[in-house]
Amino acid sequence: MDKEERKTINRGQEDEMEIYGYNLSRWKLAIVSLGVVCTGGFLLLLLYWLPEWRVKATCVRAAVRDCEVVLLRTTDEFKRWFCAKIRFLSLEMHPFLSPKSIINKVSNGHAVHLAENRAEENRCEMRKYSQTQSQQIRYFTHHSVRYFWDDTLHNFDFLKGLDEGVSCTSIYEKHSAGLTKGMHAYRKLLYGVNEISVKVPSVFKLLIKEVLNPFYIFQLFSVILWTTDEYYYYALAIVIMSVVSIISSLYSIRKQYIMLHDMVATHSTVRVSVCRVNEEVDEIFSTDLVPGDVMIIPLNGTVMPCDAVLINGTCIVNESMLTGESVPVTKTNLPNPSVDIKGTGDELYSPEIHRRHTLFCGTTVIQTRFYTGEFVKAIVVRTGFSTSKGQLVRSILYPKPTDFKLYRDAYLFLLCLVAVAGIGFIYTIVNNVLNEVEVGVIIIESLDIITITVPPALPAALTAGIVYAQRRLKKVGIFCISPQRINICGQLNLVCFDKTGTLTEDGLDLWGIRRVENARFLLPEENVCNELLVKSRFVACMATCHSLTKIEGELSGDPLDLKMFEAIGWILEEATEEETALHNRIMPTVVRPPKQLLPESTPAGNQEMELFELPAIYEIGIVRQFPFSSDLQRMSVVARVLGDRKMDAYVKGAPEVIAGLCKPETVPVDFESVLEDYTKQGFRVIALAHRKLEAKLTWHKVQNITRDAIENSMDFMGLIIMQNKLKQETPAVLENLHKANIRTVMVTGDNMLTAVSVARDCGMILPQDKVIIAEALPPRDGKVAKINWHYADTLPQCSNLSAIDSQDIPMKLVHDCLEDFQVTRYHFAMNGKSFSVILEHFQELVPKLMLHGTVFARMAPDQKTQLVEALQNVDYFVGMCGDGANDCGALKKAHGGISLSELEASVASPFTSKTPSISCVPNLIREGRAALMTSFCVFKFMALYSIIQYFSVTLLYSILSNLGDFQFLFIDLAIILVVVFTMSLNPAWKELVAQRPPSGLISGALLFSVLSQILICIGFQSLGFFWVKKQSWYEVWHPQSDACNTTRSLQWNSSHSYNETEPDSRNIQNYENTTVFFISSFQYLVVAIVFSKGKPFRQPCYKNYFFVVSLIILYVFILFIMLHPVAFIDQVLQIVCVPYQWRVTMLIIVLVNALVSIMMEESMDWWAKCFSSWALHFREKVPKAKYMRLAQELSVDPEWPPRPQTTTEAKAFAQGNGSCQITIT
């Protein structure tokens, strides 16, 4: 085996990683140990921070199959390194397994998939493992997932359950009987305990981890250095700051762990009943469950401790923990292909595809429906961290790093400061050697310059701005679980909105119905609750085709179903547990009309029928339910009217889908035009269909029939028209976003034309804008995939569609500002199926469609996530706003996901709005922009603070002087900390503006601003430093010096006597020091004002009252001690007496400095324009963002947008590059 091999695990998945094998090397370990001793432990810290170095420094490369340590590297853009130790799982002493079975089962590997039965499992594993003498399995654990070595793959792989590679047929035939105790014990060894373990680390562990942070190590180094140099007060102040910071950090981290632990602990250990092979029922703890166990769902419900597929009975489940949707969902048993009339035995089971038959971990089973003598059973398919909830918890425990230019630039910023510190370090050594200073002093002073240049308060200062923004968001009802995302939200330039419940009201109102008789539409009817319709099949479909249930006596279910059922005024009755137990089959849910709607009984011609002439006998029992599927876009039921021999099948769903299931002769010829008329007005339209089933279909046969066998050859019955009103605030919010140059996109599961209509109503698509519908068709019958383009608005007006004049093609609007390139007069609209085809076969078109795609209809949850990713690929900063239902993936993927659901699904979203209104979106962007600008202000201020202090110390080093201990303390605590923590308090500007803040620190305007202020500050400090030496009264200061002889005072006499008694051994007290101290103190305050910009992203700094008051107090205090010295203060700060004339001169220097700094910063926009125009003169500016470059290209492309009634065909499959060509048909 090649020792230099590199393998890949989780290939094609989000957590794909490269894996390298290593073995421990004793001689390398010895060398590293010696290095650790020689460096005083610093090498150990370095290896702790860098796992790649740690492994390479102590190990040698080895084959992955034989290694002792694995080194892992993610293949994403972050390229993060992890290491894990190989462990061995021993099966030698297991009481349930004979030695022979062990040899058959175990070798240097594991079983990746569960085999179909016991004998096959043994044979399969015997084939897999070559080293049959070994009785140990090699594995490692990474991010709570175990990876086992598999000899057939020659690689590590995680242990899968029944969720992959298992057919629906085998679920029933091979797994429905349960496990033997021996097989259960064997699987438990491999899969481990079924729990989502979120261990709350001890305070000591968290403390060690926090203290070993590079920042705190640097602070520790600084404190030791300052203590050696007798800067005790400043060192103590930094220690106190660090301790407070560490304690607050530990508190917040531990609090998050406890919250997460409490969230997952609800189902951690409960007693469950499982069926064994010999039909006995065994009661075990939920932590002992393994894939393949047959779990009995209790009658009174439970919180699911695992993911399981339902094979018997029906459950009503609350899945709000996962989806954010509080509406109970009906789960039915997985169709058994072996007994189905039209079975598909080869179909593989998948938890996502078969969601309606899968009970997910953490969801609550509210009620069950069951057969007498048979339990409601479910087969465990995934346990622990492999479950849907486990994966959600893993994504919270191990989040991906936030990729944002600001944070990348922050590291460059620190590296620049380190480089500056290096220059100062060399200068200090050279200067002190030339001046023959002692070696000990040289070492301390040269290291001290490094601690001055890299500000220790920087992380705390940056965190403060985000914390303040988080607090302001909380005040407006937006809660944040990922504070780093607040800054990123300041860059959002596109927001995707879900439609129902987000842009529109959550509920629907029944507008009316359009029944069909003899393949013709009747006139619209508003009132469905009347005697004429009570026994019609149309009303029977409305009464039965739903997923409503009674929970504690209250009707509960999908809001659409509720509105529909309430409109007919019928009554729903469900069988009690006792009633169900008395019968030999499922007791159906019964619906019946109220008595007042039934017509009076009339004498029948046949006297034998008199017994049945009671009006109250009209009841319909719901025999079988096929729940709504977002993929199929429909639901259906099998029902029977009391007394009828034959059963009825009813279907409701998307009109275009239902029409396709009906006999063509029953569908009105004007179906499409009527449907389009309603959808274009923004109505939600649902179609109904009916079919009389054969008499041979008995009750039990219906329980095992597939929905495909039912949902065909239907009779079209008509349309239900629902009105979905826009929320009152929606148009205004979208208008504000458009004014701010923020694109809006609609992502919905609703009908295409309804979505386009709502987009027009809410202002997402302006009245004069054109809508181009992209209808993509997959390859079939040897033909390549193609896209048909047609214009939504021209369809009804033009009888000859091909004759549309080319002038109807919308013009492109080319703006001076590149930010406006995306604002054009045409929009693309497409449905989920077309979107998938385009992603697969037309990859070259995807960026172009993303640039102008506005309406995405009939989108499945995974397609929403793919859309967000496609938009991010063209460099949009994408926000996603949804109600939590089916939006979890997109909310997590977006740069800023805002959930309008307060339920537990909000753990998937960085932001959660307390009020279900999209007005939270502009609020979040405003606060994000304010927080981002605050971060820039803090960075710029801290850069200036470092450079000002660095230059002050460098100037004083030239005369072998330095700032005093209390001078450092006053600057760093009284000025810097107060200013930094108050300048971050500026609230956000009251409205969104079209301008966006820069995304990174390394931009021309920001660099020019910082560099100009640095030069100004250095210039005025140098002026003061050298000018004081030119004064007539100047001399090299000594304790007997008295430059204030013209203004002798008692205070200065007392100070003078103090100076005589205690000579200054470190040369702190001198005229240069005093001058530099006063000028630099004012410079810190000046740059704080200069950098505290307000409009257009933050409120003006004068509205930040804490900041203003702090500055006034500091200005007054420094002016006071400069112009009117106080002996005690001068003594503490080690300031010397200077003539009053020089104090006035210093004041003039400070005022001129302030004036120049403010004028330079205020003219920054003018300088930036001059620079950009100068740059444009020499070369054409190319936008950085892909979508801007694309907009430039498309603005001169005569073939774009596609003309009406043209077709784009994919090129031949052999090319396989996703390219396409346009052909006009």
From TrEMBL:
The gene is LOC101393703. InterPro entries: ATPase_P-typ_cation-transptr_N (IPR004014), ATPase_P-typ_cyto_dom_N (IPR023299), ATPase_P-typ_P_site (IPR018303), ATPase_P-typ_TM_dom_sf (IPR023298), ATPase_P-typ_transduc_dom_A_sf (IPR008250), ATPase_P-type_domA (IPR059000), HAD-like_sf (IPR036412), HAD_sf (IPR023214). Belongs to the cation transport ATPase (P-type) (TC 3.A.3) family. Type V subfamily. Keywords: ATP-binding, Magnesium, Membrane, Metal-binding, Nucleotide-binding, Translocase, Transmembrane, Transmembrane helix. This is Probable cation-transporting ATPase 13A3 isoform X2. It comes from the Eukaryota. It is a multi-pass membrane protein. Residues 272-396 form the P-type ATPase A domain. Residues 13-150 form the P5B-type ATPase N-terminal domain. PANTHER family: CATION-TRANSPORTING ATPASE-RELATED (PTHR45630), POLYAMINE-TRANSPORTING ATPASE 13A3 (PTHR45630:SF12). The chain crosses the membrane at residues 29-50, 232-253, 410-429, 449-469, 936-960, 966-989, 1001-1028, 1074-1092, 1104-1128, 1140-1159. It is found in: Membrane. Its main location: membrane. It comes from Ceratotherium simum simum. Residues 176-226 form the Cation-transporting P-type ATPase N-terminal domain.
